[in-house]
Amino acid sequence: MSNMSEWKVICRVDDIPVLGSRRVARPHGMDVAVFRNGEDQVFALLDRCPHKGGPLSQGIVFGTHVACPLHNWSISLEDGCARAPDEGCTQSFACKVEAGQVHLDARELATLAIDLQPPLAGPCASTGAVGDATYDVQAPHTA
Ligand code: FES
Q: Which residue has better confidence, 117 or 49?
């Protein structure tokens, strides 16, 4: 881990539904989904399935995976990679919990996967920008 990390408080662990997620909007790039599993572990992935861009934040968490809501691929919350025989990985983000607060690395939020575009239409279409607000935490999704 680099000491360049700039940890930014995102929300409380308790703000994330168990086996669900919350989305974190970024000024550039797609949202980051922050997941909580049944053991209160917290993980952060780009909100974009490596298959066809489905919104992983709408998926159901089980163990250390999330099931994509579109075609049910299992994506590892630890490294963002699809479980075999499916292939592909989505960007994962460093995430830490301290005193019940979820932190993400501000530098990663500002730089990782900012070029990836959301799907333009269909069930996984983006709802678009959220104005000038940075790192707004969106309404929770309950599985
Ligand atoms: S888009 Fe996620 S499984 Fe197809």
A: 49
